[in-house]
Design goal:
The chain is an alpha/beta fold. Helix content is about 25%, strand content about 25%.
Amino acid sequence: MEKEFWLERWERQEIGFHQDEINPYLERYWQELHADGLVFVPLCGKSRDMLWLRGQGHPVLGVELSPIAVHAFFEENGRIPHHAAAGKFESCTADGIRILCGDFFDLDKDGLALVSVVYDRASLVALPPEMRERYTRHLASILPPATQILLITFDYPQEEMPGPPFAVSVDEVEALYREYAEVRLLAQLDVLPQNPRFQQRGLSRLQENIFLLTLH
C-alpha cells in the first residue's frame, strides 16, 4: 500500500474511518495507563480524540501523511496553528497539540524522546499484513523504554471484506509485539450489531480488541 493511496483517500474525502465522536474505548480504558507526559498518536488523521487527550492535560503529538487531514483538524476545531519546518516534516502546533505532516517511517528517536503513552486506534488496522511488521518494528525502535500503548484493533474474517480497516487478531498482535512489549488484552467485544455498514458489506463477525502494551 503506497503513500498515494491515503493521499488520494483524503483528496476524495473517502474517510469512513474518521470518527466525529470521541472513541468510547479511549474514555473507558485510559485510566488503565500511567499517562504522565506527551501522548503520541500515529497516523492521526483529523481525529477528535486528540482534543480529548489534550483535555485530560496531556500535550499531544500526532503524525499524519496528508496535509488535507492536518489542516482540516485545526480548521474544524477553530485553532490557528503555528507552522514550522521540522526535518522532513511540516510541524503544525496550536494549544498543546502538535501534528507532524509527513511519513511515519521518517520519525526518529529524537522526535519522540518525551513520549510516555501511544494511542493507536487507526494505525495498525490501516496497514496491510506486509506493512504491519515494519510498522511495529519501527514504532518500538523510536519510543522510549516503558512507553505504554493503548491499541484498538478490529478482527473479522478477512476474506469477507477487503481492508482497510484490516483484520488484526489477538494472536497477530501478540506475535507482532512479543519481542518488544508485554501484551495485555483488556477487552474483546462483539460489535457487529452496532455496525450496520459492516453487516451490509457481508461480515458475519466483527470484534474490537483493546490492548495495553508496555514496552520493555
